[in-house]
Specification:
By secondary structure, the protein is mostly helical. It has one domain: Farnesyl Diphosphate Synthase, CATH 1.10.600. Helix content is 64%, strand content 0%. Helix 1 packs antiparallel against helix 6, helix 4 crosses helix 5 and helix 7 packs parallel to helix 12. GO terms for molecular function: geranylgeranyl diphosphate synthase activity. Pfam families: SQS_PSY (PF00494). It comes from Flexivirga oryzae. InterPro entries: Isoprenoid_synthase_dom_sf, Squ/phyt_synthse, Trans_IPPS_bact-type.
Length: 285
């Protein structure tokens, strides 16, 4: 889901309670107000969905289903009851935001209520298609720069960010009985979901984490052409997201994949800025 571990990013802004603890905030202080306001409310809706799926008391499936019904009320031209969706309504009109993206985020959280393990990386990517891809697609919609090719690159970037977040949150997720490290990779390292955090298995777990980080880097590399294809404020914003991912990968690699001792692993602001500047200075494709 949208980040849960702390990490400085390029020119981030606190967008809601807990925003400073987000991996890849979707609002940058330097953006014009019209873009920033739209991204802020998208962020708030996404965080609300996550909170319903992760922390709502009682029946979380019922809570998510009720929120989906309210979203559909907005989609059908009605007045939603949730304030955050009422705040979203004018942005949907202004930027033609695809409401299916929010539906997908809800579906990802519903999956979290019944699926807590993933057999292999392909299964994890299927989950990312619902939990991560929608955010990038909404960002492109806000800037009015969606094309099929750009959406494809964005999906790669967002999947990478999700994989990196899973690496950062291994301990936290395990405490919630969720494991996002592929089961086949754990098995190859001689681990199971019940033994992976034992001190005797630290080295093996590090190997699995580093393997995930390497795959995330491949996804980031595959999506990096997006930065060069964008113009104006969209280019700056997306460069910030990619830079945050690269800096997070660097930080995890720097620990040798030890996401237990140093949890949560945080990228440095300097490293993030360095990657961001490099991306922005790269000649546009």
């Amino acid at each position: 889901m949208i980040g849960a571990a702390s990490s400085p990013d390029v020119a981030t802004a606190d967008v809601a309670p807990g925003a400073a603890t987000e991996n890849f905030p979707v609002a940058l202080r330097i953006l014009p107000v019209r873009y920033r306001d739209a991204l802020l409310v998208i962020y708030r809706v996404a965080r609300t969905i996550d909170q319903l799926g992760d922390a709502a008391p009682g029946d979380r499936v019922a809570a998510l289903t009720a929120f989906r019904a309210d979203l559909h009320r907005l989609r059908d031209g009605g007045q939603p009851s949730e304030q955050v969706l009422r705040d979203l309504a004018p942005q949907v009109t202004r930027f033609a935001l695809p409401l299916q993206c929010f539906d997908d985020l809800i579906e990802a959280n519903l999956i979290d209520q019944r699926v807590t393990r993933y057999a292999d990386f392909d299964a994890l990517l299927d989950y990312c298609a619902l939990s991560a891809h929608p955010i990038g697609r909404l960002v492109l919609a806000v800037f009015g720069q969606s094309t099929p090719a750009r959406v494809g690159w964005s999906d790669s970037v967002c999947a990478a960010l999700q994989v990196l977040e899973h690496c950062q949150d291994v301990v936290e997720d395990h405490a919630a009985s969720r494991v996002y490290l592929p089961a086949d990779q754990l098995a190859e390292a001689g681990l199971t979901d019940t033994t992976m955090l034992r001190p005797a298995n630290t080295r093996a777990l590090r190997g699995v984490v580093l393997r995930q980080v390497a795959t995330a880097r491949e996804l980031l590399d595959a999506g990096t052409p997006l930065v060069g294809q964008l113009r104006g404020w969209a280019r700056i914003a997306v460069a910030g997201y990619v830079a945050g991912g690269l800096a997070t990968a660097d930080a995890i690699d720097h620990t040798g994949g030890d996401i237990v001792t140093d949890a949560p692993v945080k990228p440095s602001r300097i490293t993030t800025l360095r990657h961001g500047i490099r991306l922005l200075l790269t000649r546009r494709a």
